[in-house]
Amino acid sequence: MAKQPRSVSGKVVVVTGGGRGIGRAIAERMVHDGARVAIGDVDAATAEQAAAAIGGGALALPLDVTDRPAFTGFLDEVESRLGPIDVLVNNAGIMPLGPFEEEDDAVVIRQLEINLHAVIHGTKEAMRRMRPRGTGHIVNIASSAGKTGVAGGATYCACKHGVVGLSEAVRAELRGSGVEISVIMPGLVRTELTDGLADTCAVKRVTPEAVAEEVAGALARPRFDVYVPRSIGTINSLVGLLPRRARDGVARALKVDRVLVQVDASARAKYEARAAASAPATEVVVDETSADREPAGAL
Fold first, then answer.
1. Active-site positions?
2. Structural domains in the chain (count)
3. Does residue 198 sit within a domain?
């Protein structure tokens, strides 16, 4: 007999980067399903607006995921106000695009800190809180780019490969602990992050709500690999059986190789400016020959 789906009703769910896009859609779905939701976002006003619109007692708190002590403090604050965290969704992320050889070190560091190091820290914090209780679920938002390489987004792909690899390793460490982990790998999603990208890829964009639906499904019936749409997983499995030259040919036929290259810069300018305004909370030298340092902040 199939197991009954697990319910998030009454559970405490935390969503980083929950003020907009995929994060907001996940937060809204969790509230709809009866969860007690905490939204963390570097843009406190946006987080508060999202929480007010979602309703259901959603809690909005400021969160800079690159400030690791503050990230830990944020989780402590959530637990003090809502109770032990049952689900942590590591969603915050940015996607600057452009030729790899022209990418500034500051942009590389920014992506590593937000897209990868913050997920590492969030996952570790969740494990420390959930394992002693023998229950909990970690959801890491990666990307289908975490399973392939796409021109125009080399560092982004590197970060998402890291999130997938991290989640694979943590899954092995959590086996038998009662704590679950899922890695979500969407294709293109209709959010500000994909503004200016041409709809040339054979795999069409999905809505943030479609991603939220798959997250809800993975929480109800735990599974590790979650592709959105699911057809991406099927394509990857089949294409993975082919030799390299044939895989490259399939990518060209599906126009996956051009999806992050054919960009309308003017349509993307607003998002790129917001992503560029983010920076690690800790000071880092972006040029070893220079005393210039990046200011604190994050998206």
1. 156
2. 1
3. yes
